[in-house]
User: What shape does this take?
Amino acid sequence: MPRQIEDAIEAIGELKALDGICGKAAALVHRVTRTKVVKNGLSGTWLGHPLHPALSDLPIGAWVMASALDATAGTTGARAARRLVGLGLIAAVPTAAAGASDWSDTYGPTQRAGYVHAVSNTVGTALQAASWLARRRGYHGAGAALSGTGLAITLCAAYLGGHLSFVRGVGVNHAAFQEPVTEWTEVAPLSALSDDTPLKVTAGSVPVVLARHDGEIYALSSTCTHAGGPLDKGTVDRDGCIRCPWHGSLFRLADGKALRGPASVGEPCWDVKIDNARVYVRSATA
Assistant: This one.
């Protein structure tokens, strides 16, 4: 990335003056998304990967096509362009909701940059709304200008969103690059395990959490897929799930399935065997 852009993004992340409004906004989003069905729906837990990046293609794509019609079809394509602007506005609502849910679980420089990303998108969307109204009243030229300006701002916000995802790692599976351990590996004495008390061990170079529940012993990777939180510091509930202490993501011990967001990706699961009162594990993919 050009050095000037990188410096600008870093400067945004250092704007500690934003912390007050970011904290209040994040607390509001947490209240709105506190129920399991809402959090899972917006996080993409039901989908198997984050929802926001997929939804963001819809408004951006519609607005790009509207501006393309403005540039190539003129008044002939005015009606179609207005419809595309309107479709983009409709799609922007669930996109913003999913993005807000994801953003509320970030902190520090990432949260500050995410706030600027959200404000920029809000400004771009407001300009598209003004464009739709202008077009509806027959002011095609003004509508096209408003759409073009809004699209430019939205694309800048999208660049910042890409930085958050692929540089800061927001929404990236934090257990994706763990090396599988194909051989049975001794990790702990059986006596070290207590009922419903997570225990951190290491297999190869991978941190693993062991948990004894209802007489069975389970093993999952200890790094939460959502944001890298330590599952070994979490809690095991009576339904046989482990909860991440950072953001409350819930994973089923039996197979690692994500049952509550913000995690959208399941936790890597490990095979377990007991031999001579010693616990051995290997990657379930083995």
